[in-house]
Amino acid sequence: MKTFFVIIFLIISLSVKSQQGYAITFKRAELTTNIISKNKFKFVYNDSFAFQYYYQGNDPLKKQHLYSKKLIHHSIFINRTSFLTYNEVDANIKLLIVDTIKPSTWMPTTTTKNILGYTCKGALQVSPTNDSTLIWYTDALGTGVGFLCLHFNLGQPLEVYDQRTNRYFLATTIEKGNYQFNLPKAPIYSVAAYQQLTQQLLNKPSTLSIRFYD
């Protein structure tokens, strides 16, 4: 019988040497309502890898310096050199979905603003559906490759207005430290393989609910 999906049980052990990087916490709001979400967003990264996740209340990984060892629902592990993302998307079945960050074009603006003591420049992107994403970034904190699964290499975003997802992000704290990232021990699927899994093995429509940014 032909196999319609591929399960990668051989875990890619990406044990990376601890590198200096940053952990940035963001508050989030809906653009149309300006209602601040209870969910905070955190982006932890070094030159090679990153890990991003949402949480409410106290940060469950506050004291972590080894990231991605523990899965959090809808967390994303990012290989910033190969532009691959590994998404945890199913609360019932612990697995990862691998996807590629797609290239994108950004138009720099001529204005600047100060965010948490950093001088930030603006950059704009307009999607084929005329939805715009405006990012205020600093070049003092490395690049933002992988941030919100965006192919953004001008600097690290500290404020984002994203019409595509109706979301607003603003950095509230920036911590400097040495961070290490390991891909969690879990089966790895392509997007298509995961859709086949949910449709055929679980006998229900695909539950792929995470947004893959393009």
TrEMBL record:
Pfam families: PNGase_F-II_N. It comes from the Bacteria. It comes from Ferruginibacter yonginensis. This is GLPGLI family protein.
